[in-house]
User: Fold these one by one.
Assistant:
Number 1:
Amino acid sequence: MGSRILIVDRKGDWVPPDGLDRCRPREVRLTPEGKGLIVLACLLLAGGLAGGIALGLLANRQAGEARLLREESVVTEGTVTRLWRGGDNNRQRWMAYSYLVDGQAYGRRVKVSSATWARLKVGTRIPVHYVPSRPDLNYPLQSPRSPLPLWVPFAVALGAAAVSLLLVLHVRGEARLLAEGRAAPGQVTRLSKRHRSSHGTDLGQKVFYEFRLLSGAVAHGRAGPVKDPPEAGSTITVVYDPEAPRHNSPYPFSLVTPVNRRTLR
């Protein structure tokens, strides 16, 4: 929002700002912020689809490997080769092990529970389950690795698509309101206390305002939080949906702007 967005003529009567004095529906275009949000929505959609496909392939592969281990695995003896801690605050316990199949060494590293980790030492003999046709496919002790659930890829793709759709609908909603909404004078009634993020970043204040409808009735709205809000009691321009005045927003908008605007001098 600008520092002052209500235009008053010499007689004190309210005059719509430049761009809002056009016949509805107005022609609107995206601002740089609006274009950036659309690009972000496209990237989210593409990334979600790519991630869903990649996770789907991974889930199918892991499901096939789990079936092989369940149906064809045999047990041999392996040796713990290393024990260490990792992760946040060294809370994760890791174990590396190796085993021989036809004279060739195989092995991997896995996370284990703290109770299991406490019982192990380097050199401890442990049972290892492996698939004879694929000796590299194995798991130690009695804890097979759970495959990725098949619903996860769909959830990732659908989640990204849903967020992308919400972003597009937000832009479309702002464009529709600016194109078809009615402009009216408004007044800031109060400001909320300043909002801060979890990291202490100042997010600004919410702006509460009221404005007069064409019928003369008074409606209310709120916006924000914004970092540099107008002062309480200051005048603003509000654009509202004539059929549903609860859908309203202070002008100018952040994502869309009128196409037909005179150049300021």
Number 2:
Amino acid sequence: MFNKPGGRMNYVRNAWYVGGWSPDLAPNGLSAIRILGEPIVLWRTSQQVVALADRCVHRLAPLSLGRCEAERLRCMYHGLLYDTRGQCVQIPGQDVIPPGARVRSYPIVDRHSWLWVWMGDPQRADEALIPPAVGLEDPEWILGRGQLDYQAEACHINDNLLDFSHLTYVHANSFGAGPSFAEERPRLVPLERGVRFERWITGTRGPPGRSTDELTDNWSTYDFLIPGVLLMWSGSFRPGMAASCNYERPDYSQALRGVTFTSQAVTPMAERSARYFFSWGPHRHHGDEALRDFLMKLAAQAFGEDKIMIEAQQRVIDQTAVPSVMPTGHDRGVMLFNQLVARLARAEAAPSA
């Protein structure tokens, strides 16, 4: 498990991490990824998806360079054959298979168009803990998707998503968010496995990146959940809507336009290496494929801006003998989430766990 400066644990193992996009893993297809430093091969048989340690027991060759044979996976170095549980069932030229000839199998679930891999104790893998994202196939939404690889710790990407005050500055050329995100703080609601952010921005000309001539009240809310998954809904409403609902969550059926959903997932791969998955698009009553494509182009620009900043931040951290940060008022969500992660990580490390 990786640590932040000062020795604080920053990742939870008993959680579902996104290992890849489900549509990218074809039947009898293989895909390799590292999660929390562990090499994993993702494999789709005709019956199920499988996640195994990506190293053959013989000479540690990657199984992701192997060959699918029905419900089994053949290492293409010396031919050892594995079943979906990770057990070696054949060694060419050898009749007796040692009982310990097996690789680790990880619980895996195909849901919301993502492949979720449980990195902790398999006996504690609870599908109810999978964050309730929206999949690409959901008929209510028209979503596009993408991903970026960062040369930076995943925890810094998480911190970035937990403090939207950076929108005013990092995304001045993409979202054009204006000063409100930096000058006004969102309402925070602690959750059992995350933090909820709620925000009204009133009397503006549309949401970031989609300005119009008509003034609107713009609502957005997102949950940031263990291990690093953002689920966000937003919409534009008539002026005065924020006050009429006492600045609480509005009825989306009354939205004028701009009802969108985005899901984002951050997967720590190795030290200073992370993969960032994202989808974004409009509700089918508030947009079409053209709007989806516009939003994805906007996302590619904005998330590229994040990547430049966070990778530069990582380089400065690496060059600093004793890196430390000075929190500001906008860091309350960051602190709440990181305290939750630290508490869960300590519980996992306790002997009773």
Number 3:
Amino acid sequence: MKNYFPFGSLALSRFRSISMAILAASLSVVAPCRAQGGASLQWKCSTQAAPWVDEAAVPLSDTVPLPVSTTAFRIFVNSAQASQVIDGWGGCFNERGWKAMQVLSSAGRDKVMRALFDPRTGLKLTIARTPLGSNDYSITPYSYDETGGDYSMSHFSIAQDQQYLIPYIQAALAIQPALSIWAVPWTPPSWMKSNGSLINGGDMLDDDRTLDSLALYFTRYVQAYQSLGIRISMVMPQNEPNITNRYPTCEWTGVQFSKFVGYHLGPALAGAGLGTKIFLGTYNETKRGGYAYWVAPSTQDPQTNRYVSGVGCQWSADGTMAETHIVLPKMKLMQTEAECGNTNSNDWAFAEYQYQLVKKWFSAGASSYIVWNLVLDQTGLSNAGWAQCSPIVVDSKTGQVTYTPYYYLYKHFSWFIQPGARLAATYGNWRDKLAFANPDGSVVAVVGNSAPVDSAVALNFNGRQSGVLTLPAHSFSTFVMPAASPQ
């Protein structure tokens, strides 16, 4: 196994220390006083040359402000001004991810899975998405019942999932038993669609008999997984309901969502006593009308609204999420799939783009954030021939495991920000900043520097000021102010 970043961190850390000293002198900034009570920020930094480096603690002072004349960029964090609760961080199970890992030994697979799910050493993921049937990263298109007209689901079977998906999920649960798993189909059985095919779109047939059968299909799925010790906590009706493509897809309207959830799926799951929640989604666009087109038909129908627990959005549906957040501020909102790129470049630029996406989605009101493929082989190819990026890459020819810049970018968030945190207010003339107030009282800021040069910044956490420090060029930094000690 190799690390994506080949260089050591000791020399770079010393270089940064020298650079910070020179910069402070050039700005005539007095070194910060020791903070009252010994308060300081823990600092973790990643660059392409050296990821996940512990930098020297950053002292904070509540008595000595920065000189007005300093040219350093300012970052202010106020954890007392906090908005939506962050439920957690997650990723998606797909057949091709587990297949990629089969070249590894059992110990090698376990190491990769721990890098994702271990609550002490990995990304600490607590949420996972799985396809309900096939998708663009399954080996082949399939559903759980391709017997035409089988409305009673007498031929329903999850046998296909036993080869790749279920072992993948079980391996994650062995590491993180509290993992919350939710599911969504890319397509219903082909005979429930206007084109009679699992791929290339087709409209969902919405007569009552078909929708009742689809609700039974969902119910059988949840029950089948439950019998294997896998609890499906939530489902959504359809992935990207406006997409037609050569991989599994199906078109729906917002009105069809309302009819299915309120009069078929909701009653079926409740009647089976499963306790499985329903979110609307996953929506991936806003142009048709956003909230009004996709969400309002369900939330404005009392019969449907009683079954709606949240809304899931991805890709270009941040406008739909933002509108829903304004109209229904108490509605739980989930970002359901991070963009995956148009190639398998897995480079630093892709990680920097992902940072911007995290900013976009939390600004729109997201309460959780989900990576798409967690693991892929070196080609990154879907069954439609589209290469995509992933946090971890396993070379199917050599068994080499690569932790990409995307992995470390995500870890700068998921490692530090606890489930139950709140998005905290930030201000200042440095653009790339996000902050969170953890339930244990600690405060976290994740700061990016996409510039090709080092940059001088000064941090202010809840009124306590740092001195000037240097953010390395093309870097991600997480700063943590620990919870105050009890008096």
